[in-house]
C-alpha cells in the first residue's frame, strides 16, 4: 500500500491486514534473511476462543539515525521496532481515535503523529464532533537498536 525507503536501500510496505514488510530494494542481491514480514497493530488476547482483532497499519517511518522504525495504526497506537533484531522496542497506550500518519524530524529527536478518523470502519463510525490531534514527542534512547 505505502512504501518507505531507508537510506540503506531497504523498502517497507504496510497493509490493512495488520502486517508490515521489510525487504531490500534490489531483489537481485537480496539475502533471504533480509526480507521478512511482521505482525503489528493487533489486539492481544489470551482467550484462544476469542478472535484477534486486526487493524490497518496506516504509517511506517524509519528513524534517520538508527535505522529502527515506527508504525502507527487503526488501533490508535504507535510502536517502535528494531528491524535487525526483529523485536518491538516500545508500544504506546491506545488513543481514543486511530493514528493516521507519523514522521521523524531531520535528526530523529522528535516523533510526530496525527490522530483522526481513518475511515477503516466506514462512514457509519465517523463522528464529526471528534477532534483531530497532532502529537509531537521527544524521543531519546527509545529507538536505539538493542545490543546483540
What would your notes on this structure say?
- With 148 residues, the chain is an all-beta fold.
- Helix content is 0%, strand content 39%.
- It is built from no helices and eleven strands.
- It has a four-stranded antiparallel β-sheet with strand order 1-2-3-4, with no helix packed on it.
Strand content: 35-45%
Major sheet, described briefly? Answer: 4 strands, antiparallel
The gross shape turns out to be globular
What's the mean pLDDT score?
A: 82
- Rounded to an integer in angstroms, the radius of gyration calculated over CA atoms is 16 Å
Residue share in helix: under 10%
N-C termini distance: 32 Å
Keywords:
148 residues; mainly beta; four-stranded antiparallel β-sheet; 0% helix
Sum this structure up briefly.
The chain is mainly beta and 148 residues long. The protein contains no helices and 11 strands.
Layout of SSEs?
Elements: E1 3-6, E2 10-14, E3 19-24, E4 36-39, E5 57-62, E6 69-73, E7 78-82, E8 87-91, E9 99-104, E10 110-115, E11 133-138
Antiparallel strand pairs: 1-2, 2-3, 3-4, 5-6, 6-7, 7-8, 9-10, 10-11
Amino acid at each position: 500500500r505505502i512504501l518507505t525507503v531507508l537510506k540503506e536501500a531497504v523498502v517497507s510496505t504496510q497493509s490493512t491486514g495488520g502486517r508490515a514488510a521489510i525487504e531490500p530494494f534490489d531483489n537481485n542481491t537480496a539475502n533471504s534473511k533480509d526480507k521478512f514480514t511482521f505482525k503489528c497493530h493487533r489486539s492481544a488476547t489470551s482467550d484462544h476462543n476469542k478472535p484477534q482483532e486486526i487493524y490497518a497499519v496506516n504509517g511506517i517511518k524509519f528513524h534517520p539515525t538508527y535505522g529502527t522504525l515506527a508504525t502507527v495504526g487503526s488501533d490508535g497506537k504507535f510502536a517502535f521496532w528494531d528491524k535487525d533484531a526483529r523485536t518491538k522496542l516500545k508500544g504506546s497506550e491506545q488513543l481514543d481515535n486511530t493514528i493516521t500518519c507519523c514522521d521523524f524530524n531531520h535528526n530523529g529527536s522528535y516523533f510526530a503523529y496525527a490522530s483522526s478518523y481513518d475511515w477503516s470502519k466506514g462512514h457509519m463510525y465517523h463522528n464529526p464532533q471528534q477532534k483531530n490531534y497532532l502529537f509531537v514527542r521527544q524521543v531519546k534512547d527509545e529507538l536505539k537498536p538493542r545490543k546483540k
